[in-house]
């Protein structure tokens, strides 16, 4: 790949702001064009972030200097748009989920492999200094051998703040498919592939209303469970339990704990790139009349603080260096398989075997990875 790498963005919605802000700051990347179904929206984003061209998705795919397409469309068309980018000879970075079904995403990976192209899939919070510092500490033995993990995301729901939240309550979203990828991707990155999963889910309200923005008061249908609890068993023998809810009066997000033979670690919110990391060591003795306070020992952060777009940057550098990238399409496909299996279990299937796996462990980002250096 040449330097800087030409990038085109398809989808100029809310999430495009953080991508454009970050990608336009990386010396190894050159954002050349923004495309959207609503051309005026693409024009406005291009103007705000000083991107030289704007237009439709087809304009992005036809741009001769675009080497990587960033797919920020709605989940229902992720596979369709990514497949067109592959057919146009472009590498792809896609927002989560990779797709909505196993077959379509597996075929997408086959298309990319046959074309000699890469696919990267959000979340790229995995590459943030918060998670990467915690992962390095765990690999170095900070809590001994990891045994199990606990995760929790609880909120009243995105209808409280999003001006157009309907898609977050539609097939392919809900708390499981919208927020689950952050937590499950982190767990798979730590433990390896999931072997089987079980879940229960509820949908207490079949309709909700928009609370903010020009459409406030508009009622929309809820298509998926809005509270899901799951249990996952990993191929290596580890276990995890998770709670994902859009029905909780108590706001509790970002809970991710990993417990091992020699201690427990509190990881940063998987939806954030930085955050506090700490661990506790086992007690020497516990008496009926003595309950000691366990001291939290800080684990230092290593790496530059960045946001979304970091996964794409790692991917283009990995292509140039001939190494695997961290947030791969294979990882995205496996995480989707886990979440779809959880959906099937919640619908009454009991424990569901996860058929997909990973060809290799998820790589660790070097501690000296500098997004603002020119390396290509």
From TrEMBL:
Domain Gfo/Idh/MocA-like oxidoreductase N-terminal: 6-119
Organism: Microbacterium algihabitans
All residue ranges annotated as the GFO/IDH/MocA-like oxidoreductase domain in the record: 131-265
One Pfam family, short name: GFO_IDH_MocA
Keywords from the named record: NAD, Oxidoreductase
Classification of source organism: Bacteria, Bacillati, Actinomycetota, Actinomycetes, Micrococcales
Transmembrane feature ranges: none
Domain of life: Bacteria
Name this polypeptide is given: Gfo/Idh/MocA family oxidoreductase
């Amino acid at each position: 790949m040449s330097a800087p790498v030409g990038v085109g963005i398809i989808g100029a919605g809310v999430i495009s702001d953080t991508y454009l802000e970050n990608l336009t700051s990386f010396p190894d990347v050159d954002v050349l064009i923004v495309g959207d179904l609503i051309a005026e929206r693409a024009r406005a984003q291009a103007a705000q972030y000083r991107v030289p061209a704007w237009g439709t998705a087809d304009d992005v795919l036809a741009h001769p200097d675009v080497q990587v397409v960033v797919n920020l469309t709605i989940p229902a068309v992720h596979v369709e748009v990514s497949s067109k980018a592959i057919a146009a000879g472009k590498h792809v970075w896609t927002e989560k989920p990779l797709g909505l079904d196993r077959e379509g995403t597996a075929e997408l990976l086959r298309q990319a492999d046959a074309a000699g192209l890469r696919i990267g899939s959000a979340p790229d919070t995995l590459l943030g200094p918060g998670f990467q510092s915690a992962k390095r500490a765990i690999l170095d033995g900070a809590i001994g051998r990891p045994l199990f993990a606990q995760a929790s995301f609880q909120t009243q729901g995105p209808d409280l703040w999003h001006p157009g939240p309907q898609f977050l309550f539609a097939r392919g979203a809900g708390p499981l498919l919208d927020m689950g990828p952050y937590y499950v991707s982190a767990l798979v990155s730590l433990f390896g592939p999931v072997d089987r999963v079980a879940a229960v889910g509820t949908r207490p309200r079949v309709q909700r209303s928009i609370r903010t923005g020009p459409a406030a008061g508009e009622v929309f249908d809820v298509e998926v469970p809005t509270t899901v609890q799951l249990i996952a068993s990993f191929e290596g023998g580890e276990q995890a339990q998770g709670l994902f809810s859009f029905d909780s009066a108590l706001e509790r997000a970002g809970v991710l704990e990993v417990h091992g033979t020699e201690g427990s670690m509190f990881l940063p919110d998987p939806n954030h790139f930085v955050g506090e990391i700490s661990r506790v060591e086992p007690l020497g003795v516990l008496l009926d009349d003595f309950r000691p306070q366990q001291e939290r020992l800080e684990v230092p952060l290593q790496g530059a603080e960045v946001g979304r777009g970091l996964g794409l940057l790692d991917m283009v550098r990995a292509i140039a260096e001939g190494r695997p990238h961290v947030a791969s399409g294979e990882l995205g496909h496996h995480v989707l398989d886990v979440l779809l299996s959880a959906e099937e279990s919640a619908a009454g299937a009991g424990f569901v075997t996860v058929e997909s796996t990973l060809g290799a462990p998820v790589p660790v980002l070097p501690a000296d990875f500098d997004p603002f250096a020119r390396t290509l």
